[in-house]
Write a structure and sequence with these properties.
Strand content: 15-25%
Number of helices: 11
CATH topology of the largest domain: Rossmann fold
Shape: globular
Helix content: 40-55%
CATH superfamily of the largest domain: NAD(P)-binding Rossmann-like Domain
Distance between the termini: 29 Å
Radius of gyration: 18 Å
CATH class of the largest domain: Alpha Beta
Structural class: alpha/beta
Length: 289
């Protein structure tokens, strides 16, 4: 029997237990994945130790702990160190080893559902937290034309410095407000929401005001990705889709990152997993929220 868990706050919206059960079915493994709400950083440290003692294989980390968990880890891999955020922890020989599977999950979702990312793309990312760091890290390897919009400009500049410091083309950091959202929606062809705005249960919240979409009009030729998976399509994606934009839910990112985490925890490479079937089954679960 294999065990893993999701640690964060909130976790009620997550469907990860169902997802990992499906992955385990594919590998013919007896498996259980729990979701555990962690109230504080000190409780996070205790939770890691307790789950390790109970012989869990590892944990996924969600907001708000993807950055702060690093201080409790014995080791983190090179990509996670560069990103500055960890979403997957492996328990091995009583050591806590940090990885970032969000980065791979995001780029696979974007390139399989939307388009291949290249040097001529113009990308705007809303947000500068743990999810944004992972997404930007992978995008920057393919495209240098990236702008971060964030309320906290200091936080956005820190992401830019951490990821593009050794490049002659720095990531642009700009204040998140309606004026700049409109400006960069017009200029960009790939638009990414990496904030929690619009996540269940606050599904009616919108990171981009509908008036801005109406003002811009036709969005054909533009691609929209939202790191949120619940709801399956956020208001951000629905509004963009209505105007002709091509959209991708964070559910795809979640599935791909989970496959990578599963391999790290149990050693099974799920090359033959039916992504479309799993996505279809998970959408049905999300529709019950």
């Amino acid at each position: 029997m294999y065990y893993s868990a999701l640690l964060g706050k909130p976790v009620d919206h997550s469907i990860s237990p169902a997802l990992f059960e499906m992955l385990a079915e594919t590998a013919s493994l007896e498996y259980a994945h729990l979701k555990i709400e962690v109230e504080s950083l000190s409780e996070l440290k205790t939770s890691l130790s307790s789950l390790n003692n109970l012989k869990f294989r590892g944990v996924n980390i969600t907001l708000p702990y993807k950055i702060s968990v690093i201080k409790y880890l014995d080791k983190i891999d090179g990509a996670a160190r560069k990103i500055g955020a960890v979403n997957t922890v492996v328990f091995k020989n009583n050591k806590f080893i940090g990885h970032n599977t969000d980065a791979k999950g995001a780029i696979l979702a974007i390139e399989k559902k939307l388009k291949k990312v290249g040097g001529n793309d113009k990308i705007v990312v809303l947000g500068a937290g743990g999810a944004a760091r992972a997404i930007i890290y992978k995008l920057y390897k393919r495209c240098k034309n990236i702008t971060i919009l964030n309320i906290n400009i200091k936080q956005a500049n820190k992401v830019s410095d951490d990821i593009s410091v050794k490049s002659n083309k720095k990531i642009n950091a700009v204040k998140l407000n309606n004026e700049n959202i409109e400006k960069f929606l017009r200029k960009s062809n790939i638009i990414i929401n990496a904030t929690p705005v619009g996540m269940f249960p606050k599904s009616n919240e919108e990171i981009v005001n509908q008036k801005i979409f109406n003002k811009i009009g036709d969005l054909k030729g533009k691609y929209f990705f939202d790191a949120i998976f619940n709801p399956y399509k956020t208001k951000f994606l629905l509004d963009a889709e209505k105007k002709g934009g091509k959209v991708c839910s964070g559910l795809d990112m979640m599935i791909y990152q989970a496959i990578s985490a599963f391999k790290l925890w149990v050693g099974h490479d799920l090359k033959k997993v039916n992504i479309k079937l799993i996505e279809k089954r998970l959408i049905k679960i999300l529709q019950k929220f």
